[in-house]
């Protein structure tokens, strides 16, 4: 048998950066997705039979039904993303399929986007740019298009993990924001001043800006309609975590009614679908899931997925095992 066919057979579901694809190609028998179009559920199911491992992204739904495919060959799923709610991890564990993710490498880039959205929402950047691009700007005005300053305001963090901490640190050190947060467990010592509150409601009531940094994929959103109803009328909500981390319909209703002042969203409940109601409002800044979208970070994510694959097939501990 040739060295080529001796190597584990890997499917990469979406295009990766050139450096990441080259690394994988030197170590595995790899099939790449040159078109970069999302794979169907049927194609992913067939892949379970044809490959030893998958390298999916957060946009690929790997269901329990897929994992239970008769004749499944896949033994490892190296997810490209810090989140893994796109994979039925419980079923993977039950069946002995290893699952890994790519944490840490995208922390700073995602925190940068969270700050961008905080500033864009509070300063009404989209509404201002739209006015200019539509040719409706009539010149400088002292009173038109006013946003709000964030200096001295309260930032509420829901989920004080790596990205939540990086966002809060930027806001506190760079903009003088006061930080409050809710986290299910004690995050330990922080390198910036922050007050831990005992509930999401308490954070919603206290904050001028709420930034969400919790995983999605649960039976229901962690940030509910009831939580959103606790926000100040002048408050803004930012989400760079997962679209299903919050009750998107409740957020739309709050924005449409003027119940809250604005929002900045990089993720959505049913990507790539974005509700027309959100796209129509100039109080919302929308980005197409670009939290980690830098050349450096996306390359690092691909290389870390390769690290996990190499460790698995060499019988070593995975650097980033989640199942």
Automatic annotation (TrEMBL):
Keywords: NAD, Oxidoreductase. One of its GO terms (cellular component) is cytosol. The keyword Oxidoreductase applies. PROSITE patterns: D_2_HYDROXYACID_DH_1. GO terms for molecular function: glyoxylate reductase (NADPH) activity; hydroxypyruvate reductase [NAD(P)H] activity; NAD binding. Residues 10-322 form the D-isomer specific 2-hydroxyacid dehydrogenase catalytic domain. This is D-glycerate dehydrogenase. It comes from Pseudoponticoccus marisrubri.
């Amino acid at each position: 048998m040739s060295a080529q066919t001796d190597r584990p057979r890997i499917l990469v579901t979406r295009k990766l950066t050139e450096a990441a694809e080259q690394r994988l190609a030197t170590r595995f028998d790899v099939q790449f997705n040159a078109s970069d179009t999302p794979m169907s559920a049927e194609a992913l199911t067939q892949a379970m039979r044809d490959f030893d491992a998958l390298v999916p992204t957060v946009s690929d739904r790997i269901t329990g039904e897929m994992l239970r495919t008769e004749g499944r060959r896949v033994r490892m799923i190296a997810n490209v993303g810090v989140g893994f709610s796109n994979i039925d991890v419980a079923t993977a564990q039950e069946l002995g399929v290893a699952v890994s993710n790519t944490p840490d490498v995208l922390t700073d880039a995602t925190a940068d986007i969270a700050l961008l959205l905080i500033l864009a929402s509070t300063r009404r950047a989209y509404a201002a740019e739209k006015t200019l691009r539509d040719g409706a700007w009539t010149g400088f005005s002292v009173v038109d298009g006013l946003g709000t300053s964030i200096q001295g305001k309260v930032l509420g963090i829901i989920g004080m993990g790596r990205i939540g901490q990086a966002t809060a640190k930027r806001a506190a050190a760079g903009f003088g924001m006061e930080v409050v947060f809710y986290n299910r467990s004690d995050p330990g010592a922080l390198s910036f001043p922050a007050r831990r509150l005992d509930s999401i409601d308490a954070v919603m009531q206290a904050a001028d800006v709420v930034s969400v940094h919790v995983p999605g994929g649960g039976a229901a959103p962690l940030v509910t309609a009831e939580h959103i109803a606790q926000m100040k009328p002048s408050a803004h909500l930012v989400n760079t975590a997962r679209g299903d981390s919050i009750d998107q319909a409740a957020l739309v209703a709050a924005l449409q009614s003027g119940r809250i002042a604005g929002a900045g969203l990089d993720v959505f409940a049913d990507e790539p679908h974005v509700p027309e109601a959100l796209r129509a409002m100039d109080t919302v800044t929308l980005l197409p899931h670009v939290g980690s979208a830098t050349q450096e970070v996306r390359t690092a994510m691909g290389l870390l997925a390769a690290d996990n694959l190499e460790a698995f097939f060499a019988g070593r501990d995975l650097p980033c095992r989640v199942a």
